Amino acid sequence: MTGTPDSAPRPTSPRDRSAALPVVTMIGGGQLARMTHQAAIALGQTLRVLAGAPSEPAALVTSDLVLGSHTDLVALREAAVGSSAFTFDHEHVPTEHLETLVAEGVNVQPPPRALVYAQDKLAMRRKLREMGAPVPPFAEVTWAGDVEKFADEHGWPVVIKAIRGGYDGRGVWMPEDADEAEGIVAEQLDKGVPLMVEQKVPMRRELSAMVARSPFGQGAAWPVVQTVQRNGQLAVAIAPAPSLAPEVAEQASSLALRLAAELGVVGAFAVELFETENGEIVVNELAMRPHNSGHWTMDGARTSQFEQHLRAVLDYPLGDTSPLAPATVTANVLGAEHAPEMSMDERVHHLFARMPDAKVHLYSKGERPARKIGHVNVVGGPGSVDDPQYVADLRERAERAAHWLSHAEWTDGWNEHTGETK
């Protein structure tokens, strides 16, 4: 779904479009920057990466590399020199540094006035409530009594969250009672971690509404997806979300596009949602960058989230977000408890021999327990995302492939040498 606002003619970009193709700076050397680099190559662009070490996933593939910390203003300035846009593969750059760069004329996208709502969960909750967006009840926590008081008013269970820095289940606690909450709060506040508490939403499932927005104000939305979390970490994404009522899908996409516009987001934007037991949606988290729930777009949509992010931050017209199949499933490749003796190259070899349609994306990360080291996309053939068996079969194949790459074990007992199932 794409659209261009009814407004005055498109303004002339400050960048001279007759000049050489642009350089985009991305802060962070992780897998999101690595996959954005792949999209930049196709567009003839250069992705400059600020990475903390030369071994980081994006640092291994880009020729335009700046080594330094995202908290170091000197390194940020060095990375910004000569770039057409300055963007992120994570939200952890200090806001005051970004404000300084903007004042110095750097084209920071998304701008810090928007990014702060992906950096600070309490600020995000307050802003969304002010905007009339659906959010759970919440409160700031300054001592253990705040959690007990909140629970007395809203009931148990509750969720305690670090206001800044948490991701993939880190910085999130679900105490069963006041005593457990008191211990969590005392420990985290003693470490200097600012906290908030919110009501745990009784939910049917988790959803993600991925959109993109350009500085010109054009917006585009991919189909809403269902996400499956394990231990607080995204494990599977199913696109589009199976059996999602059309009016709920439209509400989720419209909400994400409205938030992007009103917050001033530029680039890819993920609104993580809870679908409640009565079919309503509630905002969980915001991410102003490419997101794990959008990895399916690399193989299952006409425009990937990584290409779209580049288009958006450079103020190009946005791409077609239509899906290429009735459904696509992403399964994350998570490091096993003990890395297999079989090399990853051999595991890929056997996977392709058995599942030639599996699309493998590896991040060149070392294997360690639960670490995201890649993902697999399986694009569905003819069928319907509203057919439970169709979705179950597609999901099983994607998860089987991802588990094989993680563990060198087939979940169905298949033997890669004999071609037989135990």
Q: Which stretches are poorly predicted, pLDDT < 50 over at least 5 residues?
A: 6-18
Structural class from helices and strands? alpha+beta
Mean pLDDT, all residues? 93
Q: How many whole angstroms does the radius of gyration measure? A: 22 Å
End-to-end separation: 46 Å
Describe this entry's structure for a reader.
This protein starts with a strand and ends in a 15-residue tail after the last helix. Mean pLDDT is 93; it is low at 6-18. The chain is built from twelve helices and 18 strands. It has 422 residues and is an alpha+beta fold. The longest helix has 20 residues, at 388-407. Helix 4 crosses helix 5 (121-131).
Task: List the main descriptive attributes of the protein structure presented here.
four-stranded parallel sheet; single chain; globular; ten-stranded antiparallel sheet; alpha+beta; 422 residues; 18 strands; 12 helices
